[in-house]
Amino acid sequence: MADQAVLPSATAHPSGSAAAPEAPRRRRNWVPYALLLPGLLWLVIFFVAPMITLASQSLQEGNVDDGYVFTGNVGIYADAFSQYWPQMLRSLVYAGTATLLTLLLGYPLAYFIAQKAGRWKNLVLVLVIAPFFTSFLIRTLAWRTILSEDGFVTQVARTLHITDLLQAIGLTNNDSLLYSQFGVIMGLTYNFLPFMILPLYTSLERLDPRLLEAAGDLYASPWQTFRRVTWPLSLPGVVAGTLLTFIPAAGDFVNAKLLGNTQTTMLGSVIDVLFLRVLDYPLAAALSFIMLVTIVSMVMVYVRRAGTEELL
């Protein structure tokens, strides 16, 4: 009876042992939100607010001299898509092709760095990121020299009839590699290759070699080991690398302008001209918003199909 009398009083008393942990636990619950606050403010100021401004600008009408007025002109989206859908489709195709090429080139290199480079690992990583110490524009201009009409690469391609093959599949219009679809895709592939290698390296470095040994002990062939062990475990790096490559490549306009021609114009070039030369801000904003929604939708579908929703 004495115990029964003590228990309720200890529980109800404000200074009891059962009520004491509530205050610290309540304070600890705010810690994650406080840590997230700077990042959330950054996203609101530099992403959400500009997107709202862009959407609002796309629904305006007027001109530079008289000013623009918000009229809710949603018909501009249909006009923008009907006029510039070829450039939009071309941007997605070029970015997708460059992303695939960076994956094919970057995966073996990332695997070598993570699993085979040994003491040379840091040196090879420095060589991977070394192009970032040079301006993006200068790196792209260098490809004009590499793919020049009388350059070594073009001469070898002609000798091996590679230019004939590229012309047959529609990547070049003649026996020149410069100012063609091929040149634009090569520029995109080169410039964004490090964005693919680094996430792949991060995933492959965490790969436990004992898993590969266990697969071999279970009589798995090298291809089966790659397909059932290495590839699934590196999938987060593959998804991160493809996103880091595809998204900026789809909006790029430098490579298309310096390495392409009038038939290789990407949507980024159109938006650049509309904003800075034609000064048609609503149309340029509408195209930007269409491209944004398209890429975000594709990314969400891709990530969910890849089974790595935690990357969103």
Question: What would your notes on this structure say?
Answer:
- By secondary structure, this protein is mainly α.
- It has 14 helices and 2 strands.
- The chain has helices at residues 2-12, 22-29, 31-58, 75-116, 121-129, 136-146, 152-159, 162-168, 181-205, 209-217, 222-250, 254-259, 267-278, 281-306; strands at 60-63, 67-70.
- A two-stranded antiparallel sheet has the order 1-2.
- Helix 13 runs antiparallel to helix 14 (281-306).
- It is globular, with a radius of gyration of 27 Å.
- Residues 1-12 have low confidence and may be disordered.
List key phrases describing it:
312 residues; mainly alpha; two-stranded antiparallel sheet; 14 helices; disordered N terminus
Mean pLDDT value: 87
What structural category arises from helix and sheet content?
A: mainly alpha
Using DSSP, what is the number of strands?
2
Question: Strand percentage, roughly?
Answer: under 5%
**What is the CA–CA distance across the termini?**
58 Å
Shape: globular
Strand order of the largest sheet: 1-2
In oligomeric terms, what are we looking at?
single chain
N to C succession of SSEs: HHHEEHHHHHHHHHHH
Gyration radius, rounded: 27 Å
How many helix segments?
14
| Helix proportion range | over 70%
Low-confidence stretches: 1-12
Largest sheet at a glance? Answer: 2 strands, antiparallel
Break the fold down into its secondary structure elements and pairings.
Elements: H1 2-12, H2 22-29, H3 31-58, E1 60-63, E2 67-70, H4 75-116, H5 121-129, H6 136-146, H7 152-159, H8 162-168, H9 181-205, H10 209-217, H11 222-250, H12 254-259, H13 267-278, H14 281-306
Antiparallel strand pairs: 1-2
Helix pairs in contact: 3-14, 4-9, 4-11, 4-14, 9-11, 10-11, 11-14, 13-14
